[in-house]
Design a protein that fits this description.
Length: 181
């Protein structure tokens, strides 16, 4: 059990501290740990966990950590993974906060960030591609994607409303279809 807790802590420490750009940039790193390295879940389970995490309020990294940790080792696992996600960053920010503030506008730091942004986009796109292979099994799921894009970019509806509506749609359409089969 201690080995599982340690692996959860280390895996989520590694994922959260190598990600630049906030929550979405951590998703491929969490996937690399949870799916590829430790095999705590497969791609489909990861996509489901990510969907659940995105449907709930709060930062995605802590929700993914808690979900994965709980799946692997119960409440202690959720705690170990969440601490691994949050504690190192908090310590770095507290210890280096004045340096971060002092150099936040430096040309050198801005240059480094400019170079890392495309890498983050590619990593997120690669994760989206992997998840997309399972997320679009039928023409109706493609229809949901098209409607989502239209609602986001043409009507400007908040993503939370779209997530709730899609969950209700899934429950009504797909959930009832399984009951009748």
């Amino acid at each position: 059990m201690l080995r599982k807790l340690w692996d959860l802590f280390i895996g989520f420490t590694r994922a959260s501290n190598l990600g630049f750009g906030g929550g979405p940039s951590l998703i491929p790193l969490v996937k690399a740990e949870a799916v590829d390295r430790y095999h705590w879940m497969d791609n489909e389970e990861f996509a489901d966990a990510l969907a659940i995490g995105n449907a709930l309020p709060g930062p995605i990294a802590t929700k993914m950590a808690a979900y994965t940790g709980y799946k692997v080792a119960g409440w202690l696992g959720a705690l170990a993974a969440t601490i691994g996600t949050v504690a190192p960053t908090v310590i770095v920010v507290v210890l280096l906060g004045s340096l971060i503030i002092k150099y936040s506008n430096s040309p050198e730091l801005q240059a480094m960030l400019m170079a890392v942004r495309p890498v983050v986009v590619v990593l997120v796109a690669e994760t989206a591609y992997d998840m997309g292979k399972k997320a679009f099994p039928s023409s109706s799921t493609w229809g949901i994607a098209v409607v989502t894009i239209a609602l986001l970019y043409l009507v400007n509806i908040h993503p939370a409303f779209i997530i709730v509506a899609s969950m209700l749609f899934g429950w009504l359409v797909y959930g009832r279809a399984k009951k009748t089969n």
